[in-house]
Amino acid sequence: MEKQVMILQDFGYSEHEYNGETIAKRGFLLDDGIDFFYAEMPSNLARREKETTFDPKRQHTVQGAWTAQKRQAQDGRDYYINNFYISKLK
């Protein structure tokens, strides 16, 4: 999917350990003029773009994919969460 977006917030680059592996990410709050949503650059892209400054005053083109994950609430009910993973941001 490709959208024109404004960057409302850049949460910056971060790393954490998971099962002995270093996981990197860079998160953004984006606005496409209709909705605002959280989007994340996964490890390799986040590492390449960690020093890039994105101008929040101009429109950007984002490419990526939505995923849905099934979760279970404490009371046993199933629910889903959506994630948007960025493959390109310019």
Strand-and-helix sequence, N→C? Answer: EEEHEE
Secondary-structure class: mainly beta
* DSSP strand tally: 5
Instruction: Predict the CATH topology.
Output: OB fold (Dihydrolipoamide Acetyltransferase, E2P)
Please state the average pLDDT score.
95
Radius of gyration of CA atoms, rounded to a whole number: 15 Å
Overall spatial form: globular
The CATH architecture category equals Beta Barrel
- The order of strands across the largest sheet is 1-2-3-5-4
Low-confidence regions: none
Helix content: under 10%
How many helix segments? 1
User: Structurally, how many domains make up the residues?
Assistant: 1
Main β-sheet: number of strands, strand sense, barrel status? 5 strands, mixed, barrel
CATH class: Mainly Beta
Topology:
Layout: E1 2-18, E2 21-31, E3 36-41, H1 43-48, E4 60-72, E5 78-89
Parallel strand pairs: 3-5
Antiparallel strand pairs: 1-2, 1-4, 2-3, 4-5
Describe the structure.
It is a single chain. The chain is built from 1 helix and 5 strands, in the order βββαββ. The chain is mostly beta strands. It has a 5-stranded mixed beta barrel. The model has no long low-confidence stretch (mean pLDDT 95).
Q: Could you write a compact summary of the structure shown?
A:
By secondary structure, this protein is mainly beta.
Core attributes:
90 residues, mainly beta, OB fold (Dihydrolipoamide Acetyltransferase, E2P), 5 strands, 7% helix
